[in-house]
Amino acid sequence: MIRALSNRTYATLFTAQVVALLGTGLMTIALGLLAYDLAGDAAGAVLGTAFTIKMVAYVGLSPVLAASLVHLPRKAVLIGADLARAGVALALPFVTEVWQIYALIFVLQTASASFTPIFQATIPDILTDEDDYTQALSLSRLAYDLENLLSPTLAALLLLVISFHGLFAGTVVGFLISAALVARCDLPPFAGTTETRPFSERLTRGSRIYLATPRLRGLLALNLTAAAIGAFVLVNTVVLVRSDYGLGERALGVAMAAFGGGSMLAAILLPRLLGRVRERDVMLPAAIALTSLAFVFAAIIWGRSLPPWWLFLTFWVLIGAFYSAILTPSGRLLRISAHAEDRPAIFAAQFALSHACWMITYPLAGWMGRYAGLTAVLLVLAALGAMGVFAAMRLWPVHGDRVIEHSHPDLPPDHPHMKAHQTHGREHAHVFVIDNEHRAWPTHG
């Protein structure tokens, strides 16, 4: 993964991502303490509502923002989003009412919904070599896992000398440093002339390409699997550790570190593996293993019996590894499934559709877990994950070749596309993606 970092532009952007993620982690902890300060025992409901607002902003606004901002310079969009997030973090320590938290979180996540898809779509334009880009995807996964591991530790150290309001200052600094690092980069402009398309077409283009591409329909199904099991871990680990095992906060940190460590291990190993086998041959077995582990763990805790602590941590390491093996290669699929000018739209579609899966699984993991018990909710989520696996098997062809032979009965012989690719008759073959000349996936040939 060192070779990808030898690209100075990518190395700077990766550093900006890490710094911003650390700031976000500090804000997450500070937000929980702020919610408790304002709402007391109802803090969980406040945070639940805030996270729901986050998902609504991600799902509803990211395609709109991608269509609206495509004609602006990437650097200006990324810096503006960072400055907006810094402004929200600066305002959060001064809130006095719960509704103010909701309003600021909506603004914050709106900025993130504009930043993240454009940031993700920029990386394949910088790292044009597929192996380098695969390394970048693994580094991004590592960055998210390190944020989950380091932010709580950093927050605990800071809280020894400052109040939780001071954590928001760390968030502000993180976003400002991120903006400054982005400003140093020479980013490529958006490709093509997508701004000449009507807004309605720009708004739906990403999702249309996404849902018309078999491998991406399979990816969406696997996103559901990852979200189902991931939601159980992220929402209910605290219940398992604190209530069922009766252990303290340090044990909770160990459990989440086990999950994050498994994810990091998979991210480190994946670049070499993906250089030898196809994405489907990694992601689908990982999804099957992830769902199987969920069913096995549900069987173990049936009747409120608990496995030994070491076995519980082993489960969480394995779940983290297979969870990462599903999510990490997704960028490769997006990259090969659209032309450069359509990448911002298709990354925005992935951002929205994947978070739509979390909109289903997060409330299910939380509310059903509270009222029906952890075994019942894990069985339901595992069944939902299995549905995702079976859907991916059907939607994602085993022989999903990139170069596909096809014809264009709707195009005249003198069309530029026909002249560029014609070989014999009207049949020709090339790397197939959904675009203006290819509006449906070939069903034969």
UniProtKB/TrEMBL annotation:
<feature type="transmembrane region" description="Helical">
    <location>
        <begin position="154"/>
        <end position="182"/>
    </location>
</feature>
<dbReference type="InterPro" id="IPR011701">
    <property type="entry name" value="MFS"/>
</dbReference>
<feature type="transmembrane region" description="Helical">
    <location>
        <begin position="218"/>
        <end position="239"/>
    </location>
</feature>
<feature type="transmembrane region" description="Helical">
    <location>
        <begin position="371"/>
        <end position="392"/>
    </location>
</feature>
<feature type="transmembrane region" description="Helical">
    <location>
        <begin position="309"/>
        <end position="334"/>
    </location>
</feature>
<feature type="transmembrane region" description="Helical">
    <location>
        <begin position="251"/>
        <end position="270"/>
    </location>
</feature>
<dbReference type="InterPro" id="IPR036259">
    <property type="entry name" value="MFS_trans_sf"/>
</dbReference>
<keyword id="KW-0812">Transmembrane</keyword>
<feature type="transmembrane region" description="Helical">
    <location>
        <begin position="88"/>
        <end position="108"/>
    </location>
</feature>
<feature type="transmembrane region" description="Helical">
    <location>
        <begin position="42"/>
        <end position="67"/>
    </location>
</feature>
<protein>
    <submittedName>
        <fullName>MFS transporter</fullName>
    </submittedName>
</protein>
<feature type="transmembrane region" description="Helical">
    <location>
        <begin position="346"/>
        <end position="365"/>
    </location>
</feature>
<keyword id="KW-1133">Transmembrane helix</keyword>
<keyword id="KW-0472">Membrane</keyword>
<feature type="transmembrane region" description="Helical">
    <location>
        <begin position="282"/>
        <end position="303"/>
    </location>
</feature>
<keyword id="KW-1003">Cell membrane</keyword>
<feature type="transmembrane region" description="Helical">
    <location>
        <begin position="12"/>
        <end position="36"/>
    </location>
</feature>
<dbReference type="Pfam" id="PF07690">
    <property type="entry name" value="MFS_1"/>
</dbReference>
